[in-house]
Each structure stands twice: as structure tokens, then as C-alpha cells.
């Protein structure tokens, strides 16, 4: 069994399904991420990840690398 933590990330700038796919792909490429669900309407990504492999800051970096901003 693996450890899993859930993070909610508020994302600015997503306006279509292509935006969602781009952010989802970027987050899923982070080693230790188990699951990504993004709600375009609310602009929130829910990410399940292994806290032993990835820090929350890496998730925010992945969103920024996809071209979007994280709202704190």
C-alpha cells in the first residue's frame, strides 16, 4: 500500500478543455503523482500524490510550466 496525500490547487487562466488537458498532462508527469482531476468551471485541480516522492511546490511548478498561474 502506498501513502497518498490530496492537494487542491486553484489555477488561473484555464478557459477550455485543451487548457485542462495541458495542465493535467503536466501534473501527471510529476513523479509521485497518482491521480489528477481538474474542474474547469471552478478552476481547481485535485491531485493525489505520494508525499515521500513529491513536495507540493513541485505541483505548483508543473502548473506554471504548463503556462498557467497558481492562486494562493
From TrEMBL:
GO terms for molecular function: copper ion binding. InterPro entries: Heavy-metal-associated_CS (IPR017969), HMA_Cu_ion-bd (IPR006122), HMA_dom (IPR006121), HMA_dom_sf (IPR036163). The keyword Metal-binding applies. The keyword Metal-binding applies. PROSITE patterns: HMA_1, HMA_2. Keywords: Copper, Metal-binding. It comes from the Archaea. Residues 5-71 form the HMA domain. This is Copper ion binding protein.
